């Protein structure tokens, strides 16, 4: 649209179903590339994608005509299909239902970028559940813990 200007930065965090540690280092960068391309295909702009064995972080510039739920439905469905079509896991792959999404200002992008870039090091000190709850608390998101982790086995 003419005369429409925007600057909307978000981080989306989503996990493998049951938090299974199935994302292998040998194909993780390909998966991140696929997710980045899926984001870009919607008209949004990928800044960085990274994760560890059981979850992924995406930092992106959101296009205002795309809803976050639309974006995530596409990203999660098509990246699951990519993993399954290429038989990258021993059993059928699925992402956990839901996701966390957090917004940032331009001045925060460098630090969020570095945080996502250093996921492997970060998770030597903190597991995904602790990290996710810290995000929810830091951003004052109201939640019921029993629903956040209800699908864990």
Walk me through the structure.
The chain is of the alpha+beta class. Helices cover 41% and strands 18% of the residues. The chain is built from 6 helices and 4 strands; from the N terminus they run βαββαβαααα. It has a 4-stranded antiparallel sheet with strand order 2-3-1-4, sandwiched between helices. Helix 1 (25-41) packs across helix 2 (68-85). The protein is globular, with a radius of gyration of 15 Å. The model has no long low-confidence stretch (mean pLDDT 93).
Spell out the helices and strands N to C.
EHEEHEHHHH
Largest sheet: 4 strands, antiparallel
Uncertain runs with pLDDT below 50, 5 residues or more?
none
How many runs of DSSP E, i.e. beta strands? 4
- Can you list the strand order of the major beta sheet? 2-3-1-4
General shape: globular
What is the helix fraction of residues, given as a range?
Answer: 40-55%
User: Strand content of the residues, in percent?
Assistant: 15-25%
Oligomer: single chain
Mean pLDDT: 93
Count up the helices. Answer: 6
Radius of gyration: 15 Å
Ends: how far apart? 47 Å
Protein structure class: alpha+beta
Question: What's the short story on this structure?
Answer:
The chain is α+β, with helices and mostly antiparallel strands and 153 residues long. The protein is 41% helix and 18% strand. A four-stranded antiparallel beta sheet has the order 2-3-1-4, sandwiched between helices.
């Amino acid at each position: 649209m003419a005369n429409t200007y925007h600057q909307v930065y978000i981080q989306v965090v989503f996990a493998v179903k049951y938090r299974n540690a199935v994302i292998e280092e040998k194909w993780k960068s390909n998966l991140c590339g696929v997710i980045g391309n899926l984001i870009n295909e919607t008209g949004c702009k990928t800044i960085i994608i990274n994760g560890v064995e059981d979850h992924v972080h995406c930092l992106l510039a959101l296009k205002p005509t795309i809803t976050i739920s639309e974006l995530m439905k596409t990203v999660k469905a098509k990246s699951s299909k990519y993993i399954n079509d290429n038989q990258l896991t021993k059993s059928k792959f699925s992402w956990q239902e839901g996701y966390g999404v957090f917004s940032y200002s331009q001045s925060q992008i460098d630090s969020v970028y570095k945080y996502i870039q250093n996921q492997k090091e970060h998770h030597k000190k903190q597991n995904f559940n602790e990290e996710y709850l810290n995000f929810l608390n830091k951003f004052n998101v109201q939640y019921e813990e029993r629903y956040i982790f209800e699908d864990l086995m």
